[in-house]
Write a structure and sequence with these properties.
alpha+beta; five-stranded mixed beta sheet; 8 helices; 5 strands; 49% helix; Glutathione_S-Trfase; GST_C
């Protein structure tokens, strides 16, 4: 199995979640600018959208999009998903929220001239404030780390590196999640720590 990723991009969430789940995989670095795969090959042949992540199974099937890959991981490692009769759906709800309300705004924000970024930046901070309110017991779903926390960590960690001042308790949350062995391993493997 191969996880196609770009250091520091949203694929970091999948990388962390796969390590947390104990899933064996090879990490394949993608240059998002040139769409080339480290070691040779065109990434567009793997994922025609050109976005990371992409997870290629041993049979050649490819799964893309954070929501789908993180849900797949949670199905294989139920301890990384919220429990209860609506647990799977609460997970999909949160992953979709993170993808559509926070993640999707970053490309827009970064493509704007600096003087035009403020409204989009305010929207990003607003939605981070919404999820910060969910962290009163430590994680998005209470006292247990889930694949959704891997995604929120990556988004919040990336936002702080872009200079965003995030509402508390996100600063403490980032620092605490960053100390997890799987997060440390992922950051080292991607050359980010």
């Amino acid at each position: 199995m191969k996880l196609y990723s770009a250091p520091g991009f949203s694929s970091l969430a999948d990388h962390i979640a796969m390590l947390e789940a104990g899933i064996q995989f090879d990490l394949v670095k993608v240059d998002l600018e040139t769409k080339q795969i480290e070691g040779g090959g065109r990434y567009m042949d793997i994922n025609p959208t050109g976005y990371v992540p992409a997870l290629m199974f041993d049979d050649g099937e490819v799964l893309t999009e954070n929501v789908a890959i993180l849900a797949w991981i949670a199905d294989r490692a139920p301890e990384l998903a919220p429990q209860g009769h609506l647990g799977r759906f609460r997970l999909l709800e949160m992953l979709s929220f993170l993808a559509t309300e926070i993640h999707k705004r970053f490309p827009t924000y970064l493509s704007l001239p600096e003087e035009a970024r403020e409204p989009t930046g305010q929207q990003i901070v607003h939605w981070f404030g919404f999820v910060a309110g969910r962290l009163e017991r430590g994680y998005l779903f209470g006292e247990t780390f889930t694949v959704a926390d891997a995604y929120l960590f990556q988004l919040a960690w990336g936002a702080t590196h872009l200079g965003f001042a995030l509402p508390e308790p996100l600063g403490e949350y980032i620092a605490r999640i960053e100390q997890r062995p799987a997060v440390q391993a992922a950051l080292h493997r991607e050359g980010l720590a």
